[in-house]
Amino acid sequence: MVRIIVYVTVFIISSFFSIISAQNTPTIPCNEISYTQFDFWVGNWDVYNTQGKLIGHNNVIKMPNACAIQENWSSKTSTSKGTSYNYYNKKDNTWNQLWINNTGFSLVLKGSFKGNTMTLKSDFVENDKGNFYNQITWTKNKDGSVTQVWNFLDENHKKIKEVFRGTYKKQ
């Protein structure tokens, strides 16, 4: 009988501590599949134009204290530098980017990942340069490189102009 009481007591105590331990185990939403869709862009990159000329460097890192990716761009052909913050919004199932550069220009984009391409688009812009959407795509290529294309789209979402095209190759 004493043996049974000891076993039951040990079982109850171990169950209690297991429940307490499980309640204190933090969940890490950043590891959920949706939060990792843009991880193909994480890395230290040399960026080349369509003629194969080095045009810049981009260090893209996962933020250790947030479910976010930080981009750190530096041009080799101009004084352009900039940073973006990219995150997955679980509430509306979208990817979001806030880009800010050293001239004070900022761009807010929203979109999604499909296949091997992340597509983010701005709200409709009306200014002295015209009326358009900004749309940027990042495509993961079979060789591990990434192609980024920035287009202006008209109100019907048709391409007006290609603003930027670069191929990212890991350093």
Description:
- The structure is a single chain.
- This protein is mainly β and about 170 residues long.
- Helix content is about 15%, strand content about 50%.
- The protein contains 1 helix and 11 strands.
- A 10-stranded antiparallel beta barrel has the order 1-2-3-4-5-6-7-9-10-11.
- The termini are far apart.
Give the topology, please.
Layout: H1 2-24, E1 43-48, E2 54-62, E3 68-75, E4 81-89, E5 94-101, E6 106-114, E7 117-121, E8 125-127, E9 130-140, E10 146-153, E11 159-170
Antiparallel strand pairs: 1-2, 1-11, 2-3, 3-4, 4-5, 5-6, 6-7, 7-9, 8-9, 9-10, 10-11
Which stretches are poorly predicted, pLDDT < 50 over at least 5 residues?
none
Shape: globular
SS class = mainly beta
**Helix-strand string:** HEEEEEEEEEEE
Rg from C-alpha positions? 23 Å
Gap from first CA to last CA: 69 Å
